[in-house]
Amino acid sequence: MSEDSADIRTRILREATRLFAAQGYDGTSLQQVAESVGIRRPSVLYHFPNKEALREAVLAHMLAYWKDAIPGILTAATRGGDRLDLALKAMVGFFVDDPDRARLLTREMLDRPDAMRALFSEHLQPWTGLLTGAIRMGQGAGSVRAELDPEAWTLQIITAAIGAVAVGPVSAHLLADPPDPRRQLDELVRTATVSLFNPRPPKEVRDGKLLPGQ
Amino acid sequence: MSEDSADIRTRILREATRLFAAQGYDGTSLQQVAESVGIRRPSVLYHFPNKEALREAVLAHMLAYWKDAIPGILTAATRGGDRLDLALKAMVGFFVDDPDRARLLTREMLDRPDAMRALFSEHLQPWTGLLTGAIRMGQGAGSVRAELDPEAWTLQIITAAIGAVAVGPVSAHLLADPPDPRRQLDELVRTATVSLFNPRPPKEVRDGKLLPGQ
DNA sequence: CCTACCGATCGGTAGG
DNA sequence: CCTACCGATCGGTAGG
Asked: CB distance B113–A169 less than 8 Å?
């Protein structure tokens, strides 16, 4: 019975996540959540004291999934320059695997900016700090462009990735020949790579056939 | 009295835009709109037959503003390579001038993807076509990177710009030292520029001191 | 996890 | 542009 209860709770969370992502919190009724699970509305309120608590649980559940995935992504990113591709694709992949994550996150940032600010500060800042730190090291070593703003660049790539997954399939129709998601994500990786690293000097310069400064 | 009526209608539109952007369509009641304008709820329904019609009018009003601004932006963009900075800043500026535009647009793409797809196809595709066409010409002339995907690149810059304005002030707190909007937009322009254009060859190569292909 | 019930609020209409 | 009124739906509770 305890397992039954936990199972139902999980199913409520899953359906609520899906519905909140697609229709928003205010656009989703507890009745709809209950129907999707196949129970009656008051039964939802047995597992979650009220609708707001369900919202928080949905968010916490996604955040838990995040905190599980982020370390692997960022350690890949901070290790070597060549692995940026993999790290970027892993981060994008986290949202691509389940676009509801990107949509829910975007909606929550729009609906409750203050709460999300607090949540980000509390749980996610340490990890992004690793990334900007690695970028600064790369700037010191000369591999990363000196004129790049580490914080602004990081934020932009994250924003672009989330935006591409959350609203990409819609905004793609701004173009007569809408690029499919694959093309969008490949281009994101290319843009991020090119804008992050200094270009390798031409072989002749690397070989010292030209004097530096001349 | 006709002017009065038009004035009230405009004020309803303005308040509805503000409230829809901040709280979403489902999260905003006609009562709230009426109160913001300083009239009773049924009076709102004198100017707009129902809530859905108000939504459409808000969207159409924003789109009209758009279609007014986009030509200037894109002709600046398509003219010369050096003007990309100005064009990008103009496009971003359109959303920066009134962040509600970016928020409303993002919400509508999440809430009604099909309707927004249709709206984009109908009204905005000709303009973006100008932009991708100019990019392809730049690729032919060698100023734009050959490996760039014109459609995917354009979409990504637009997505990044809208995302930066719509949720930037929140997502900035993913970082311990949140970059202000100015830094985010400057970095967007830098990233876009670097990822679009081929690097100028070093002066020595341009001067022919090294043979091409060697 | 259910049935039965609650007050509050919703969008919308009648009628002036 | 208003007052008065409508049915429908909302989140939530009682009680089992």
From this structure: yes
Contacts of B169 in chain A (CB under 8 A): 113
Q: What pLDDT score does B65 carry?
A: 85
| Closest Cα in chain A to B149 | A187
Distance CA A22, CA A65 (A): 19
Give bridge partners of residue A144 from the DSSP assignment. Answer: A197
pLDDT in tens, A189-209: 999 999 999 998 766 555 655
DSSP letter at B213 equals: T
- Report the percent of chain B where pLDDT is more than 70: 89
CA–CA dist B209, A180 (Å, integer): 44
**In terms of C-beta density within 10 A (0-12 exposed, 13-18 middle, 19 or more buried), how is residue B94 classed?**
buried
In strand C, which positions have an atom below 7 A from any protein CB?
A: 1-4, 9-15
Distance B158 CA to D3 C1' (A): 48
Query: Any atom of strand D under 7 A from CB of A34?
Result: no
- Chain A residues whose CB is inside 8 A of the B171 CB are 109, 120, 155, 158-159
Minimum-distance nucleotide, CA of A26 to C1': D10
Rounded CA-CA distance B160/B30 in Å is 32
Residues with Cβ within 8 Å of B88's Cβ and at least 6 positions away in sequence, in order, are B77, B157, B161, B188, B189, B192, B193
Q: What is the pLDDT of residue B200?
A: 80
CA atoms of B7 and B2, how far apart (whole Å): 9
Q: Which two tokens stand for residue A19?
A: 């519905």
Q: Report how far residue B72's alpha carbon sits from residue B214's, in angstroms, rounded to the nearest whole number.
A: 44
Distance B29 CA to C9 C1' (A): 9
Whether residue B1 contacts residue B8, with contact meaning beta carbons closer than 8 Å, is answered with: no
CA–C1' span, A31 to D9, in Å?
10
Q: What is the pLDDT of residue A212?
A: 40
A26-53: pLDDT as tens digits: 999 999 999 999 999 999 999 999 999 9
- Quick: pLDDT tens for B54-91: 999 999 999 998 888 888 877 777 776 667 777 778 88
A214–B204 CB contact, under 8 Å:
yes
- The reported pTM is 0.92
